[in-house]
Specification:
The protein is mainly alpha-helical and 486 residues long. Helix content is 71%, strand content 5%. It contains 18 helices and four strands. The protein has helices at 11-43, 48-76, 78-96, 143-158, 161-172, 179-207, 209-230, 243-250, 268-273, 275-296, 298-305, 310-317, 319-342, 345-366, 373-402, 406-437, 449-464, 477-484; strands at residues 105-113, 118-119, 127-128, 133-141. The strands form two sheets. A two-stranded antiparallel sheet has the order 1-4. A two-stranded antiparallel ribbon has the order 2-3. Helix 6 packs antiparallel against helix 12 (310-317). The longest helix has 33 residues, at 11-43.
Length: 486
């Protein structure tokens, strides 16, 4: 039978489903620590500044290892990389719940350290703290350092997930049909983020915070086992793909075998001279500055700043991610529609990015004027919707600019973006402790920071005006890279 007479099989949709599940697990494992944060800070006697270092340990590893693990996918194939990193990060998700509290170990004169104050329940005005504990002048090992190490190793594992997911999409979907799967991955990541606070709050209420990490860590092992049995890097080698689907996926492209033949080195001289790479990285940093506050600090803000209890903060804390899921899913179609409507890829993506981030910045900054916690969360959630509306455009522009080195360059731009996320978490930790030292409590200790988050989003919108997705790192990729490689 002629392939044109066949009905294409739908194995590519199975690939999409696996990537969607991957994104869900990625974010539920990443964000559950935000809901557990207040309980962990109490048990480990941590200030807000201490806690910011725990959060940033993940961020540093994620940023450092993302370009490397993205390049591994380009070189060895995404299947091998994804199986290994999912098992790795799932192990350290579970081990987060196994970190014990113990008196710091070291040498030198020992002093008594007072633990920070905590309000229990939130908004009650009843403050307490743990007993003082001895700490040597030079600390070699402590619960804080051990927790930072575990979160660093967790971040090293998660680092390669999205670059390799982007590479799988480029192999299994033809040019012009990659927007919806890219949007679906980001949507499912947000659904995982939405599920994490509410599910973690329930587990914490019934079993304690440690079991939340154990339960979530098990999900990755199940995914890796199923994925290893079914997925193939090359559509031509998958037994479920017929000739009609293969023709649909490949067109005129030739599918190389990862790990064999000539390895094309990344042209770093061209990379550093391409303004799109730096602009996309800085835009990612601006959006990450806001999103990582939601990922790591928002439930704590709702409990300590807005006076909500554990379960209530979990349910409200999921709202931004549901809005983000809707925004990024819609953005995948809006970007394609604008491209057809305007006839210009540059105008379509820049307008979506600029308008989306400007609206987001205004909404986030205005949230502090809402006395109702629900209204404040709604404003931040709507802002997150618009910031993630542009994310689909960011993925599309990244695919255009990255070309044949998409895995590595996606990782590089995400690494730049993660610097913004790390800065956000450090800033808020230091800021909250500083305001507390000045005598501020409750909302007065937190609210003014949201002006900065809104302003950074506005800056990201300005940067979108200078993006030109038709100027890739390698000029020849503008027309032919998708015909020659996956």
């Amino acid at each position: 039978m002629n392939p044109t007479d066949q009905q294409p099989t739908r194995v590519r949709y199975g690939v999409m489903a696996y990537l969607a599940a991957l994104a869900f697990i990625l974010y539920i494992d990443r964000i559950c620590i935000a809901q557990a944060g207040t309980e962990m800070m109490k048990e480990f006697r941590l200030t807000a500044t201490d806690w910011s270092f725990v959060l940033v340990a993940f961020q540093v590893a994620y940023a450092v290892f993302e370009p490397t693990t993205g390049h591994w996918g380009d070189r060895y194939g995404s299947r091998r990389v994804l199986i290994r990193i999912v098992i790795w990060w799932s192990t350290f998700t579970a081990l987060t719940g196994a970190v014990p509290w113990f008196t710091p170990i070291g040498f030198g004169p020992v002093s008594m350290v007072e633990a920070p104050w905590f309000e229990e329940p939130a908004g009650s005005g009843n403050w307490y703290r743990y007993e003082s504990y001895p700490r040597p002048q030079y600390v070699l090992c402590s619960s804080l350092l051990l927790l930072m190490l575990v979160r660093f190793l967790f971040g090293a594992g998660e680092a390669g997930a999205l670059p390799n997911a982007a590479r799988v999409i480029s192999c299994w979907f033809p040019p012009g049909r990659r927007g919806p799967p890219q949007a679906l991955i980001s949507t499912c990541a947000q659904i995982g983020g939405a599920a994490a606070p509410a599910l973690a709050a329930l587990i914490i209420n019934f079993f304690g915070w440690r079991w939340a990490f154990v339960v979530f860590g098990m999900l990755g092992f199940v995914w890796a086992w199923l994925f290893a049995r079914w997925f193939h890097d090359d559509p031509t080698s998958h037994p479920g793909v017929n000739q009609a689907e293969l023709q649909y996926i490949l067109g005129d492209r030739v599918m190389p075998t990862p790990g064999t033949g000539h390895v094309e080195h990344i042209p770093w001289r061209l990379v550093v001279r391409n303004p799109n790479i730096w602009l996309l990285g800085l835009i990612n940093a601006c959006t990450s500055f806001f999103s990582y506050m939601l990922f790591s600090w928002f439930p704590t803000y709702l409990k300590r700043g807005r006076g909500l209890e554990e379960v209530a903060s979990g349910w409200l804390g999921m709202l931004p991610f549901l809005f983000g899921a809707t925004g990024v899913l819609l953005g995948g179609y809006v970007g394609d529609w604008l491209t057809v409507r305007t006839g210009s890829r540059r105008v379509a993506l820049a307008s979506m990015g600029t308008v989306g981030l400007w609206i987001a910045g205004v909404l986030v900054g205005s949230s502090i004027y809402a006395d109702s916690p629900g209204v404040a969360v709604l404003l931040c959630s709507t802002g997150y919707f618009f910031s993630y509306l542009q994310l689909a455009g960011w993925w599309a522009a990244m695919a255009d600019v990255g070309g044949r080195h998409l895995g590595a360059l996606f990782g590089l731009c995400n690494m730049i973006g993660l610097a913004g996320g790390a800065g956000s978490q450090l800033f808020l930790g230091f800021y909250v402790d500083y305001m507390e030292a000045q005598g501020y409590v409750g909302r007065e200790q937190w609210d003014a920071a949201f002006f900065l988050y809104g302003s950074i989003l506005l800056l990201g919108g300005v940067l979108w005006l200078f993006i030109n997705p038709r100027r890739p790192v390698i000029a020849a990729d503008a027309a032919v890279w998708t015909k020659n490689r996956c």
